[in-house]
Design a protein that fits this description.
Elements: H1 2-24, H2 31-51, H3 61-76
Length: 82
């Protein structure tokens, strides 16, 4: 039960952070939509790195994470970057 409680707590902390970003206007969309999008991206990249059909070993995982975060950020930020 401790694990389930910990997971729920961690998810709530994540939702609170997303909610704060939405409230301050740095991201757009509903808290739930932004949270699902972010978790989906993280899960997808993790799956590709661990056992995906695409060989991503030629690029360091932290570099791939930056690319993915940048792409996600471009989709949810209030102000588009050129």
């Amino acid at each position: 039960m401790a694990r389930a409680g910990s997971t729920a707590y961690q998810y709530q902390v994540f939702l609170d952070a997303v909610g704060a970003a939405v409230a301050e206007g740095s991201v757009q969309g509903s808290v739930e939509d932004v949270a699902v999008a972010a978790l989906s991206v993280v899960h997808g990249l993790s799956t590709l790195l661990v056992d995906g059909p695409v060989d991503l070993r030629q690029r360091p995982p932290d570099q791939l994470a930056r690319v993915v975060i940048s792409a996600l950020g471009g989709g949810i930020t209030s102000q588009r970057r050129p």
